[in-house]
Write a structure and sequence with these properties.
2 domains, two-stranded antiparallel sheet, Rossmann fold, 4% strand
Length: 598
């Protein structure tokens, strides 16, 4: 089949340069904002501080396959579901900076602060390649603009976000781009292998990459069912699944000791993800000989193969469809997840919610419209591009459904939404004539490019942190004259400042906002909600706590704490036996109370 979609037609080499310059300007504006990294020197969120702690621990000699971070969930440490690829991307340039004399902590912090913007630039260029099977020429580059201005992508890619989500974006674009090429041209087996390997790498980074991998496999399966000759498509699907399995096997062997190779964890690459790849490969290999049957005769075989594979997987792991949330423990489900903004569903009940949903969902309506029009007017049925459109449509459905359940999955929705919407102006130009074409194209150009690109600049540049519990000044005080021996355990009533305190001070922290740390969350709530001081002291002793920190503005964790709770009594001036209040400098005394336990 001709490969004209991959030919470099249309855009000048200056276009990618201009896009990269625009991206540099965009991230500079974000970093130089009043609450940006260049202004404050602070990372953007608790995850970034925790990632920095994890990379520092690796540099200082932590075992490669040890998931325990001792600085959090003290005294036992926090078992993280994160994996090593992003750690290496942060540590490698930091290590080079250390060789030039930069302090290790500063090197890791700066490397982590800029890893996501760099990955955003990689994703930007990769998106044009990924979209080319659908939109040859200049149309593919529209995807870059959409991903540059996507709220979901920018939120996870800004300076100071040492976060694996932008690495997931890169893996998703590589998976979709190679997968669409493999579907359009059944002779391009290397693209199928590349799609599987890229998808496996994405699952290695985080299992939520299955939101891209599963639609790709399903799209190839449906293409096998619809196409007149489905044998070659089934073989392409088998190559994708086998490439996926090879990468997942490598990931499991790399991340886990031999004794844990058979351990199934839904929130971290494990044997259950390898089993999904193996089941998909078996289905495609069995389906290949049936690909020469007329399409309607393949339906029973397809249903039987998919149903048997799905039934077997769900029998082995009933929580498989819960994805990463299947790894959340009881304490996190009760106290953490209901209060995490990115875990909340997208709603449409009020005007504000509708506006928020438009930011989160981005270009989904445009993508849907483009895919519907493309089937009629772009000649996809004749060129075979309908298979690529089918994969994008399924990824769009999966990402939309996941985003409606939790906002965080909007990042997984962004690649198919941007790829789908990129051809809207091209199709409108073909449909309309004369002045109508110019007017409609101008309106949609403003909607697609103007507002999404300008609004993040305006909102970010005016954003000023309203956090009521500033950490840097407190950390300077605690580090200059530690009130307890270094390595002592501190319990703070504010989850979000725990990782930053663990980075900036010599004290380990009890609570942090992670779904595997539910036991620490339950203990935090038990202490501050306690009406019996002896009960609170038992929990504190078990956690080996020496310091207790209260932020006056911290809302209660979970249900409102009773009026006679320990936290309310402490704020009211009551001091239980064995609690000594430590004087704080004036710049933080209005925000915090600090106690040492005798």
């Amino acid at each position: 089949m001709p490969r004209r979609n991959d030919s470099p037609d249309g855009p000048t080499p200056l276009l990618p340069i201009a896009l990269l310059l625009a991206l540099v300007f965009l991230h500079w504006r974000i970093a130089a904002a009043p609450d940006g990294f260049l202004t404050t020197g602070e990372m953007a969120d608790p995850d970034a501080w925790t990632r920095s702690l994890r990379v520092l621990a690796l540099y200082l000699g932590a075992a490669w396959q040890d998931p325990i971070l001792s600085a959090l969930s003290a005294p036992d440490g926090l078992s993280l579901h994160w994996t090593r690829p992003l750690d290496i991307l942060i540590l490698a340039p930091a290590w080079l900076a250390m060789r030039l004399g930069v302090d290790p902590r500063d090197a890791i912090l700066w490397s982590g602060a800029w890893v996501s913007p760099v990955l955003h630039a990689v994703a930007l260029l990769l998106s044009a390649w990924a979209a080319r099977p659908l939109w040859p020429g200049i149309g593919a580059w529209i995807t870059c603009v959409l991903l540059m201005s996507s709220w979901a992508v920018l939120g996870y890619s800004m300076p100071g976000r040492a976060d694996h989500h932008t690495l997931l974006l890169v893996a998703a674009l590589l998976t979709l781009g190679a997968g669409m090429r493999a579907a359009v041209d059944e002779h391009r087996g290397q693209q199928a292998w590349l799609a599987g390997i890229a998808g496996g790498f994405g699952v290695w980074v985080s299992p939520e990459a299955m939101l891209t991998v599963a639609p790709l496999l399903a799209g190839l399966g449906l293409a096998w069912l619809i196409a007149w000759d489905g044998k070659r498509l089934a073989l392409q699907g088998a190559r994708v699944a086998l490439g996926l399995a090879l990468m997942l096997a490598l990931a499991i062997a790399t991340e886990r000791p031999i004794a844990e190779w058979g351990l199934a964890e839904p929130d971290k690459v494990s044997v259950q993800h390898l089993a999904i790849a193996g089941a998909a490969a078996a289905c495609f290999l069995l389906a290949a000989p049936l690909g020469r049957l007329v399409p309607w005769a393949r339906v029973p075989a397809g249903l039987l193969l998919a149903g048997a594979a799905g039934y077997a997987l769900l029998r082995l792991w009933p929580d498989l469809l819960r994805g990463s949330l299947g790894g959340a423990d009881a304490g996190a489900v009760a106290l953490l997840l209901p209060n995490v903004q990115e875990m909340q569903p997208v709603r449409f009940g009020t005007r504000e919610q509708i506006g928020d949903a438009l930011w989160v969902m981005g270009t989904v309506p445009f993508a849907v419209l483009t895919l519907l029009l493309g089937l009629e007017f772009a000649g996809w049925a004749r060129s075979g591009r309908w298979r690529a459109a089918l994969i994008v449509a399924l990824a769009l459905v999966a990402g939309t459904g996941a985003s409606l359940m939790a906002r965080r999955f909007a990042l997984d929705l962004a690649p198919p939404a941007a790829i789908g919407a990129a051809g809207l102006l091209i199709l409108l130009g073909r449909l309309l004539m004369g002045a109508a074409r110019l007017i409609i194209c101008a309106v949609f150009a403003a909607m697609l490019f103007g507002l999404p690109f300008v609004a993040p600049l305006l909102t970010t540049s005016e954003a000023v942190s309203a956090r009521g519990c500033p950490v840097p000044a407190l950390a300077r005080f605690l580090s200059a004259a530690p009130p307890a021996p270094p390595g002592s355990v501190m319990l703070s009533d504010s989850l979000n400042i725990g990782p930053e305190l663990a980075w900036r001070t010599p004290f380990r922290q009890v609570a942090a906002p992670y779904h595997r740390g539910g036991a620490a969350l339950l203990d935090l709530s038990a202490v501050f909600a306690a009406t019996d001081d002896a009960e609170a002291m038992r929990v504190l002793a078990r956690r080996q706590v020496r310091l207790v920190l209260l932020c006056r503005d911290t809302p209660p964790l979970g249900s409102p704490w009773p009026e006679e709770s320990l936290r309310r009594r402490l704020l009211a001036g009551e001091r239980p036996d064995g609690w000594t209040e430590l004087p704080l400098p004036s710049e933080v005394s209005s925000s915090y109370l600090l106690f040492i336990l005798n």
